[in-house]
Description:
Residues 1-24, 54-83 are annotated as: Disordered. This is ABC transporter family substrate-binding protein. It contains 13 helices and 27 strands. The chain has helices at 108-117, 168-178, 235-241, 293-298, 311-319, 349-357, 361-369, 403-412, 440-454, 467-475, 493-501, 518-528, 533-550, and strands at residues 7-9, 29-31, 49-50, 70-71, 86-91, 122-124, 130-132, 137-145, 148-154, 196-201, 207-212, 253-259, 264-269, 282-287, 304-306, 323-327, 332-338, 416-418, 421-424, 427-428, 430-437, 459-466, 482-488, 553-558, 562-566, 569-570, 588-589. The strands form eight sheets. Strands 1, 2, 17, 21, 22, 23 and 24 form a seven-stranded mixed beta sheet that branches. The chain has a four-stranded mixed beta sheet with strand order 5-14-13-12, with helices on one face. A hairpin with a 2-residue loop joins strand 19 and strand 20. Helix 6 (349-357) runs antiparallel to helix 8 (403-412) and helix 12 runs antiparallel to helix 13. It is globular.
Amino acid sequence: MHPSPQKTCEHEGTVSPATGVRARGRFTTVSRRTKVGVTALAAIALTLTACGGPSKTDSGLKGSEGTVGQADINPQDGSKVKDGGEFRWPVDQLPDNWNYNQLDGTNADGRRMIDTLMPNLYKQKADSTIEVNKDFLDDAKLASTDPQVLEFKINPKAKWSDGTALSWQDFEAMWKSLNGTDKAYEVAGTTGYEDIEKVEKGATDQDVKVTFKKKFAEWKGMFSPLYPKSMSSSAEEFNKGWADAPKVTAGPFKIGTIDRTGKLVTVVRDAAWWGQKPKLEKITFRQVDRPALADALANGQIDFFDIGSSIDNFTRAKSMQGVTIRQAITPDYSHITFNGADSSILKDAKLRVALMRGIDTKTISKALLGQMLKGDAQVTGNHFFLLGTKEYKDNSAIASFDKEAAKKQLDELGWKLEGETRKKDGKELVVRYVIPTPNPISDQIAKLVQSQLKEIGAKVDIQAVPSTDFFKQYVNVGNFDMTGFRWLSSATPISDSKGIYSLDPASTNQNYGRIGSEEVNKLLEQANGELDDAKRADLANEADKKIWELGHQLPLYQLPGAVAVKSNVANFGAVAFANRPYDYINMGFTE
């Protein structure tokens, strides 16, 4: 599918690759909107600057006032990076599905593993621009705008692990499984693919012609990661065939071990890889509970961790010898998702907005980030564009914090205060807030929300569930009234977010709370079909205003984008937007 936002499960609130990116998670469970695709447009003209940061960040982290596009990765020439070594990467969980486009496949941790093995046809750069990945494509171009036609020329060296060449048939099969016509395919989203009329063979099997029946602006990123046609051979294979392990790969690495008992995945160099040889011999992705991250880094069990919004991990990292804190503005924000399904007590949009008005996001941001930042944490008032991008507008006025207004709105809705809790028609206003555990950040946010909503007469019942079950058994299936994680955004924020904010009666996509309207659907359709960058951003901002009115989700704060990493790690750290894929080829150790 079109790159989804990734979700991450740090409920920082996550990262789709859903997400993760939608989630895009884990949001720090990160989801894939990779929950993750939300933020800066590919069209943003920004300056790419890769620069090494200070050896220590002693005076606190920057907020979101910096420049988008600056990465902090200890850049080193290949001659300075040793050949070999094992990089140990902590994750919240192993993939629920190695098919990133299946509904359960959108968490950010899974996307990171998948990206070492599968073809990413493009590279997202630190400044949010996108370039063709020459390992897989010789060229990708917009051949015509009316009708819109894309032409891909596949690198003739590119081969699947079963020996077959990548071909136009892989593109065709992926389109057919993701365009929404066969509802048996449990897809995380249909964006872009539903607008295609046909996928054809060009001059050779490695030439692909994609013709659209309706214009689709953010086409860079489609068919990425690419999967073999065999995966889409049936709905059963698409939905479950890759749940336990990938069957066919084509990347610089291949699977070494999948150990669900030991909670780890290793990938090792693939001798059949036709591109530049990776510096690392092996990457080990190991599940590490968030409270244990600092100890694991100090003890040499992992080589970095995402600080997220943990003041404890930030403080610990500052004092570690041989560890550097690196920071870059990141397309990563924490939020609360509301459930508007008929089964939820929050099915009324006006009730959801009233509760949002009772949540003080500035206080939450300060509580979580205040001790880490030099200045104040900036709350996020947009569901598509993040702070630091020129398209960003704060459209949150209708749901802005106002305790007295919240009380008045609840009274008007018939939720009258009886003792400490409001009631309507004899039913108490009790909201079930589902969070992953162990996760200190999720726990802290939920308790702050619980305390704040108590002041307006709403009772919050916090339900902590195992992190490994959080997305699959709760978020993905709408088993919550409120929940939270982090969305990892992308350079194609509007199309990546369509599956989150559009309401499709036939499919959840990544709209886990089942909230939407025909008006939002129409605006997103218009935005995704608008080739003019400025007009597209204006349409997205109009849609964003309507999303706020619906009480869809409440962004809390943008993450400071800090990571604690071993000082001898090169070409990796705070990568800004350069996370699809990470630079697995050049990252490694200087000694």
